[in-house]
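Input record, target 12 of the design panel.
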């Protein structure tokens, strides 16, 4: 693709995009689904293993809800 900035300038080529924007919305959507769980929004647990357990539980609930919608 070529773009001209001013009349008489040489045409410049645009750099190819990295393609990260195509999958970025998937990650943002997953974070939005997890954001509805209050204990994950405000991290009350001091231990990392408890927080990880709640995160796993929240992911399981989100997947279960999505599966229920599809059937």
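The sequence produced for target 12 reads:
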């Amino acid at each position: 693709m070529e773009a001209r900035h001013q009349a008489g300038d040489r045409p410049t080529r645009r750099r190819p995009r990295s393609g990260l924007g195509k999958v970025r919305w998937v990650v943002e959507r997953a974070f939005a689904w997890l954001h509805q769980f209050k204990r994950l929004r405000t991290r009350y647990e001091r231990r990392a293993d408890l927080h990880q357990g709640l995160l796993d539980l929240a992911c399981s609930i989100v997947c279960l809800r999505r599966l229920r919608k599809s059937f």
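The beta strands are 2-3, 12-13.
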